[in-house]
Design brief:
Radius of gyration: 25 Å
Shape: globular
Structural class: alpha+beta
Number of strands: 25
Oligomer: single chain
Largest sheet: 8 strands, mixed
Helix content: 10-25%
Amino acid sequence: MHLAKSRFYQYFTGFMRQMLFLFTSIFFIFTSAHAEPVPYVDENEIIHQRHSMLQTHTGYNQTEIHAVLPRLKKYRIKVQKIVNEVLVGDVTFLDPAIEAKDPQGLLLKKVNVFHIDNLEPNSEYHLELVEKGNETETFSGDRRRFRTLDPNKSDIRYTAASCLCDEVRYNDTKLPIWTQKRLTNPDFMMLLGDATYVDSFDVVNKTEITTLNIWQRYLDSFTDNQGTKMYRLKPVISTWDDHDAFNNSDKYTPILKDALSMFNLLYGGRTLPGIIENGHDGTYKWFTYAGVDFAFLDARTFREKFDTPEVSHRYGHLGDIQEEWFFKKAGASKNLLVIAKGDMFGSETITATGADGAIKRITESFYGDHPLNYKEFMYRLKTLPNPYVFITGDIHRASFIRHGPEQSGARNNPFVTSEWITSPLYSYRYNADDENAPGWDDKDRYATKNIYNFGVFSISKSVSGFKIDVEIKGPGTKNKDGSKADWTKPAPAVLTDSLVLKTAYPRTSCELFYLAK
């Protein structure tokens, strides 16, 4: 009797499995026959015909889209999931969460921010921008794709760039280098500052910059940015640097607060618990993904002047609120720390004497401008067991700089690590005709290139540690003989690097004493 029951159970369960497979197959065939394919878009078409929009803060179930649009039209977005190049599931229409125009109402563009929630992790979505009428929704001609983050991600790949000058002289580089960024297919993109040259010599009288000037400069630079026209959107996580407010800006810059508001409106986003946390003010934030913590630091909002008395330098670069926030977050982390900001970390400030005898500051840096703050910050950083690396921009050349036990002064470190500098995406370069032109003297620099560039970073991890592979890429616009290359194909890297870090490092008694203090 028991054997008969067992056989019946086996026959029954087998029959049910076959029926389930049959019904699933019929359902798939039926839905596929009636599903709408994703509209075809040639990614290499004349992309400047699209509106300007970025995907910013993104999590597993939500994202943000920031767009600059004509000011008199009302817009919504239409969102639907993509599976196997087919649009599936419910269609969602969303109005902007924020619609902002310049305070005087004079400019012809506005900013729309869309908050998209209730998404599925590691999923791709189709987005259409539609014009909202009284009774109809009219397609605007603008289609995009975007993805949510993958909660099971282990190895990640991202790009980093800074210094995007919208002046006409860089037009030949803008589309090719953004195309190269697209071809790397990163999980997300870092923007490390100087996305807007508010103080552009071409259009602004530096002594009389107004709120309206700031709005126009930001809108012009955003719409000039070819990354905002790409069909496949990628999450962009940003902090700012000096030109986003004023050359060599600090907390005393008169227009700083207006510029900060505009930067966050276009490049910022919401706090997404467990993924990305905004600081209390400024542009600093903490992003956690795939077992890596990314600290985006703000070196402008709290910055003292470089020539203030030494006593004021204890928090002269980052400010006490930001620094304490950083170490609270870092102290609670066991992950690799990627510390990113606009200007350099352990470098001297470089100056030059002009023809008129005036001394011009060529670079800025944490150590060079605020040595006491740098010293105390690094002491505290060295008490953490976490491995860490630095990514910076600002100086308009790609450079790799070593920190480690063999280095002296500001770059002495308990373990070997690196500061990777990537800049400019497109902006002024000294000795621009010579890509091998030497930079300033620096005994700790082990690679450099004087080209338009961005960095591609790949992080893989194992039980014992992390491996970081770095590629510096350019626009790929010319062959060696000077002829035009096909910039729609991936260009080779011009600099490469690889760094292996342990999951944790022991600290010295001196550092432990500082921690106890």
